[in-house]
Amino acid sequence: HVQLVESGGGSVQAGGSLRLSCAASRYTLRNNCMGWFRQAAGKEREAVAHIYSSGGSPYYAASVKGRFTISRDNAKNTVYLQMNSLKPEDTAMYYCAAIDQRACTLATLERSRYWGQGTQVTVS
Known about the structure:
single chain; 124 residues; mainly beta; 7-stranded mixed beta sheet; 11 strands; 4% helix
């Protein structure tokens, strides 16, 4: 059973940066597509970014492109989301997800069985 744990959230002023991490326990993620999602209060969950198991073909939502960077370190079994130039509208609970395939599709990620508990990001 895959357990994903996010960390790195917090409160930051607009224009600041945060780096989120998603680590897996008792499971190796090197063969899994990984993604980040977020859900703001009163809004639907939205995909933020995803990355193939190889570390290639990153995808970004239009709202974060150019500001966020997804990366992974398969040796550390961890996926990261570097968030720069943060805006108040980035405020949300951020979740990571994994699927049992190397390549990513949004539809498959959204139906993932494997989700972390989330980490809160607040931008003021």
